[in-house]
Amino acid sequence: MASNGKRLCVIGASGKLGRYMVRLALERGYEVVGVCREKSVPKLAEFAGRITVHPGRTNDPAVIARAVRGCDAVLTVLVPFGVDGYASGTAQAVLDHARPGARLVFSCGWHISRDGRDVYPWHFRAMAAVVGRLAKLLRVIDVGDQVEACRRVFASDTAWTVVRGSDLEEGESQGLPVWSHHVGDPVLASNRTRRVDYARFMVEAVEDDALVRQAPAIVGRLTPSALAHAGT
Ligand SMILES: NC(=O)c1ccc[n+]([C@@H]2O[C@H](COP(=O)([O-])OP(=O)(O)OC[C@H]3O[C@@H](n4cnc5c(N)ncnc54)[C@H](OP(=O)(O)O)[C@@H]3O)[C@@H](O)[C@H]2O)c1
């Protein structure tokens, strides 16, 4: 694939979403840089020789500063794991070190609300409350830290996009997901997106100026709700 002359960094490159994004970015001709924890570098073996990897914790400002240097775009997986401010630390490092004007695209879940105008189904709220509390008790997930990470992104004057993912599943691509400004829009009701298509949305957002300073909530384009309501 010919180079498109642009450099793109994937923060959290070794995860499932991260690896899809690396693959798609390479297909689109980006020079790709990745950041992941040292122990996860082997998960990027399939890209050996084709990407530059910066091993380290993604909330380490020194690691991020090195990785994003000269990048036109930074795609960041906001991790809800850990209870030591990992997601907010990661977001802060990207906001502080990406070059001015770079396109910054962040991933998170529907539970993030930019303006408080999202309307959540009761079962979504119940599940979020139970899982959130249990996970925090067990010290594995801190959803609140992803909220803090996004609060900092929303407040920044960078060229950000926060892509709010529905429940995810594996499977063949169905094409670019459809999106809405707010959860509660009937188009999103199916609450299901293929992970590969989430990655596609993240990568394509880089070139879509209409998504700058937007927080699209996405859903698979072939889900029943998208088929019934897209474009209405
Ligand atoms: N799963 C869903 O149904 C769902 C729904 C909506 C939105 N999302 C969003 O989609 C994004 C990707 O989520 P995913 O579920 O598909 O997972 P994923 O892509 O596999 O990503 C998980 C990430 O978390 C890192 N990680 C795991 N344990 C960690 C720890 N203890 N400390 C630090 N980092 C750790 C992984 O790094 P290593 O490779 O180093 O382990 C990897 O980068 C997230 O932003 C998530 O909020 C997911």
TrEMBL record:
SUPFAM superfamilies: NAD(P)-binding Rossmann-fold domains
InterPro entries named in the record: NAD(P)-bd_dom, NAD(P)-bd_dom_sf, Polyketide_Oxido-like
Gene3D superfamilies according to UniProt: NAD(P)-binding Rossmann-like Domain
Domain of life according to the entry: Bacteria
GO molecular function, one term: oxidoreductase activity, acting on the CH-NH group of donors, NAD or NADP as acceptor
Domain NAD(P)-binding, chain residue ranges per copy: 12-208
Protein name, as recorded: NAD(P)-binding domain-containing protein
Organism: Actinorhabdospora filicis
